[in-house]
Amino acid sequence: METKTSRFQKPLVLLSLSLLCTALWGSASPAIKISYELFHIGAGDFFSKCLIAGVRFFFAGLIVILFEMAHSKKVLLPPQKELPGLLALGLVQTSLQYILFYTGLAYTTGARGALFSSLDGFFIVLITPLIFKGQRLTMSKILGCIVGFGGLVLISAGTDISQLAGFQLKGDGAVALSSLCFALSFFYAKKLMTRMSAATVTGWQMLIGAVVLIVVGALGGGKMYMGNGWKAMLLLVYLCLLSSVAYTVWSVLMKYNPVNKVSILKLFTPIFGAVFSTILLRENPFTLVHMSALVLVCTGIWLINRKS
In terms of Cα–Cα distance, which of 181, 35, 265, 221 is closest to 189? Predict the structure, then answer.
């Protein structure tokens, strides 16, 4: 998968694989909502959410590691000197990000949650010039962020902007911080992937972060109701496969391409989220507002990636 570096730098390959990842992530929100119903997890049951998220990412990480082992025909163990880095990455990218995300969602609306959870692409664009030499924050990039953010506002709240009023630190702030964790962690992951394969970094950080989530959920009394049998298990399997595929492919793209060029494509996630919510949850039919949001997001992506 990683033998031909140039393959992942081709615009068509980059766009196609990015759309695959964002489509999978977009399907996650409605799938998670359905899983809460099947596993009988209430809206405020934080510890059960941590438990099911931990189980999801544990098996997702295991899938990545086992697949890479079958592909390479060797045991996928990280070098001992890299364990502290993988531990730090797992704690931030999986554990802390999802603890903040689930905590914040309990104190904010769905519209504001969707908006603030999609800020990581903008964070990366703004932070990149501070980390990488030769990267500048141009007027085109600033304008692209503004236009793209406008698209996210539309997809999150439609024409009723009042839904986004009243910023709450423990709600909206926590969700925004989870996006910041995602953004910062990928800068560090990119550094680790100069020394290890994307599968090694992705699989092991997921396993480490998942164990923390499972421990937090179990100690807090979290439970997973199994009364719905095969339906619940099939959905959990899908969520595991979703995470393993999306995070691994995204990591490969981040390894071989400029960070901000890839990350801003994540703005397609809420667009796909609206589509899959319409299909799976029969929520908010895909309207002219959603199409307008898509146009704004695409325009923002083009402005950010345009050569000055």
Answer: 181
Integer angstrom CA distances of residue 82 from 62, 78, 88, 166, 204: 18, 7, 10, 43, 11
CA–CA separation, 283 and 280 (whole Å):
8
Are 51 and 223 within 8 A, CB to CB?
Answer: yes
The token duo for 190 is 């990119």
Which token pair is 251?
């990591």
- Between CA 177 and CA 169 the distance in angstroms is 10
pTM: 0.82
pLDDT tens for residues 279-289?
777 766 567 77
The answer to whether 293 and 271 have CB atoms below 8 angstroms apart is yes
Instruction: Give the pLDDT confidence of 93-151 residue by residue, as tens digits.
Output: 999 998 888 788 777 666 566 667 778 888 888 888 887 777 777 888 888 888 888 88
